[in-house]
Design goal:
Blueprint (H helix, E strand, L loop, with lengths): L2 E6 L3 H6 L1 H8 L4 E6 L1 H7 L7 E4 L14 H14 L3 E4 L8 H9 L4 E4 L11 E2 L8 H11 L30 E5 L11 H13 L3 E4 L6 H8 L4 E2 L6 H9 L3 E5 L2 H8 L4 E4 L6 H4 L6 E4 L20 H4 L3 H21 L1
Parallel strand pairs: 1-2, 1-4, 2-3, 4-5, 5-6, 7-8, 7-10, 8-9, 10-11, 11-12
């Protein structure tokens, strides 16, 4: 059996969405290591089927890519050579090129390299896997893994997963069913405005829900603003593993197209997805769990991949009313709470 290097040089959500593909590679290999960026490292360490996590901040990808460093590239090549990988599988989104990483894999002496590539790869790729239109990111990555010799185990349903057991978050959670609202996103165009998110929290509280507002360590002020007097801000009180546990215990999660949406899916929690159509929902909607997709999917920003909203007032999301969010939560979370009570 071969030793495989899997590569996904993106953010938390991207790494989580590639999880089933990593498991498929692991099922037919002697070991799978994962090469990720700093922004995806915490997610990589949560994934089943991954033996070792390696980090490389690539200058050709990411929201704020680093300057090119010859020393960093040479250090990566030395590390890859030392691991003596038999195969490398480079996972990318549809708009990204795997060829810079494929070249480095060749330079590191990896004898077989596979990826999905729109660009002509020359001799850099042994498998240039095609991507049919309309596939979800999870399915596209899994298709590449299968083409690279992977295969899901018979008892693997192909959904997102994280390592278990999850840690306790009893210090954060109320003694009643609760909803999590995560108002931020690494790409601003994909997040609701703070005041809009605050109205959602207030409406959910008025409907009888306990509401926890999550965020990163630098988002205390945002979480407090969104929580107001109706919710409880918990920004900065969870690492990604504890956030997974917090989401797992929630009746529902309300968030934009961002990493916590996919983390919620990985722990089986329904998601009300406030989805800005700057990227296609059919590729990026939370996978494998009940979802209510809210937001104008035909808005003028559709398909632009804009990082900042190109339309004044962010209408694709501001058109979503707080009452609409409450109704969506009731539809998803009500069934989940009833199931848990019945169990």
């Amino acid at each position: 059996m071969s030793r495989v290097l899997a590569v996904r040089l993106d953010n938390v959500g991207d790494v989580l969405l590639t999880g089933p593909a990593f498991r498929a590679l692991a099922a037919t290999a002697s070991g799978v290591d994962l090469l990720v960026s700093a922004s995806g490292e915490a997610a990589a360490r949560l994934l089943p089927g991954v033996d070792e996590v390696l980090r490389f901040d690539a200058p050709w990808t990411g929201y704020r890519p680093p300057e090119f460093s010859t020393g960093a590239v040479q250090a990566l090549l030395a590390r890859l050579r030392a691991h003596r990988y038999d195969r490398a599988v480079v996972f990318t989104s549809d708009h990204q090129s795997p060829l810079p990483m494929a070249l480095l894999a060749r330079m590191a002496g990896i004898g077989w390299v596979g990826a999905t590539s729109h660009d002509y790869p020359g001799s850099l790729l042994d498998v240039r896997h095609p991507r049919p239109e309309g596939l979800h990111e999870v399915e596209a990555a899994l298709g590449l893994a299968l083409a690279a010799g992977g295969e899901l185990a018979p008892d693997d349903d192909g959904r997102l997963r994280v390592r278990e057991p999850l840690p306790s978050v009893a210090d954060l959670t109320p003694d009643a069913p609760y909803v999590v609202v995560h108002p931020s996103a690494s790409v601003p165009s994909r997040a609701p405005a703070p005041g809009h998110a605050a109205a959602m929290v207030a409406a959910l509280a008025d409907a009888g829900w306990r509401v926890l507002v999550t965020g990163g360590a630098s988002e205390h002020e945002l979480a407090a603003q969104v929580a107001g007097d109706a919710g409880t801000p918990v920004a900065g009180r969870t690492d990604l593993h504890r956030l997974a546990a917090l989401l797992a215990g929630a009746a529902c999660v309300v968030t934009g197209n961002t990493g916590p949406a996919h983390l919620a899916a990985a722990v089986g929690t329904p998601v009300v997805s406030l989805f800005s159509p700057v990227v296609p929902a059919e590729r990026w909607v939370p996978y494998g769990v009940p979802v209510r997709l809210l937001g104008d999917q035909g808005a003028a920003c559709r398909g632009t991949r804009a990082r900042e909203c190109p339309v004044a007032g962010h209408p694709c999301l501001t058109g979503v009313g707080a009452a609409e969010v409450v109704d969506a939560v009731a539809a998803l979370a009500g069934a989940r709470v009833a199931t848990e009570v019945g169990a």
